[in-house]
């Protein structure tokens, strides 16, 4: 009996050991999964920062060139400005800076977007807002219509997560850019509301036209003859589907 008891006890202890090991393995898997997800979020944020570094400089150089060229035409500068050299990566891809940044943003998974934006320093958030203004200006809004939900989600999260920094900003250029962005989005929103209202009215008109052309009145002759003596007539309505 003692030997049987010892054998059962050893087997039960071995079973507990296996359970503990399996639970430990599960915990390690959870930690590995979380670590992997965190690293992916950081990599997504780093890729976005790299794209902003490359493309923001391109935008700044292009704007400065346009200013210098305008000044030269007004004879405020004696020497004609030289066009800036395009970044080798953008030149190889034959792509504009704002398009490249938007492509990088699109490649970030929806579940990782907020975490990737959260790791951006405020200076990079300001750069990103510059590109949001470019994406939503009248010249580009129609080209980026399929990405407008992603752009708005990015904008709203940036504003929400950096609200205190935005409030404390006193740079006139920054305030001017934010106001311009707000007006662009407000104009586009009003235009969209008008288009939706027009489309809804058109659908209602088509619905009424369909009813007029596909609904007919049928009078039951027998029922009418029975009710003639009572001075009443009953009509039945039938709708035909075509």
From TrEMBL:
Residues 97-208 form the Small-subunit processome Utp12 domain. Pfam families: Utp12. One of its GO terms (molecular function) is snoRNA binding. One of its GO terms (biological process) is maturation of SSU-rRNA. Keywords: Repeat, WD repeat. One of its GO terms (cellular component) is small-subunit processome. Coiled coil: none annotated. Residues 13-32 are annotated as: Disordered. PANTHER family: WD REPEAT CONTAINING PROTEIN 3 WDR3 (PTHR19853), WD REPEAT-CONTAINING PROTEIN 3 (PTHR19853:SF0). This is Unnamed protein product. The lineage of its organism: Eukaryota, Fungi, Dikarya, Ascomycota, Saccharomycotina.
